[in-house]
Amino acid sequence: VSEAEATSSRTEDTARKLSATIDAGSRHFAAWNDTMAKRLQELRDKITQARHIADSIRLSMTSIGDSGGSCVRTYEPSHLEPSTMTSIVLTYAISSQLRDALLFYLPSSSTDDFVAIEMVNRKIRFVWDVGGGLGEVTHPLHIQTAGDLTNDQHWYRVEAQRMRNVGRLWVRPQVVSAGSALSVGPPAVNSSAASIGRLDVGPSSRVWVGGADRRLPHRLMSTQPGLVGCLHKVELNGRPIGLWNFRTQNPNSCTACIEGYK
To answer: What is the pTM (predicted TM-score) of this model?
Structure first.
């Protein structure tokens, strides 16, 4: 009996020590978990802050080298959602003699829908397919070669709007004389076949600048790969896209250029 009581006592003592060890381990793990959670949150906050800073950087971008385009970047705007309306604003200039450029391309990740802006033979073309077949409109203004990108007169404002199946396109120099027809002229307008007219994009969709994914519609006409010219500002549905807050890019291909017209 005495031996049994001693064994029971030792067992209880071992159990208490084991329980104390487990409690200490649990407290240690909880403290470690709290520390890691805090550090992860701090990291998330820093990433968010860095993205906000990148969004606010007012630097234009272009391809490295003068022989053609090589810069291709993708972006993941947080506000993408299916919509019957699309608004795109670009500020653009070109100092080379190249004539084609794919400036903006937004494809759906789930359908064949897309919208795009390209320069074809020095004229801006707005293209879309939102379920009713191809729609396109080309503005008649000829994009001139900029001898000096620091001169605001050599920059162009490109504004494309789509309401369901109807597209409108404005292209004008950023600096025009008062009363000039270029500042008050009507947009170029065209329409695709009538349909629901909804662009099915969402959080998984990406904006492309200077290029496109493998599903690049054959109906786009620009042939020069990579970003040609200098792009200063991109706005999608009234919200700016930070050109330096990109998701992916071709390695060693993009660089800053003149800041551009404000």
So the answer is: 0.78
> Which tokens hold the place of 99?
């004539």
Beta strands in 186-236 (DSSP E): 188-191, 207-209, 230-236
Residue 251 lies in a domain: yes
- Residue 262 near residue 59 (C-beta atoms within 8 A): no
**C-alpha span between 134 and 115 (Å, rounded):** 10
Say whether both 104 and 26 belong to one domain: no
Range of the domain at 138: 58-257
Condensed to tens digits (0 to 9), the pLDDT of residues 21-67 reads 887 777 877 777 767 666 655 555 444 444 445 455 568 999 987 55
| 137 beta partners | 126
Do 62 and 140 lie in one domain? The reply is: yes
> What CA–CA distance (Å, rounded) separates 129 from 135?
6
48 plus 157 within the same structural domain = no
Q: What is the C-alpha separation between 120 and 221, in angstroms, rounded? A: 7
Quote the CA–CA distance of 170 and 200 in Å, as a whole number. 24
Q: How far is CA 173 from CA 35, 112, 152, in A?
A: 55, 33, 9
Beta carbons of 249 and 61 less than 8 angstroms apart:
no
Which pLDDT band, with edges at 50, 70 and 90, does 81 fall under? very high
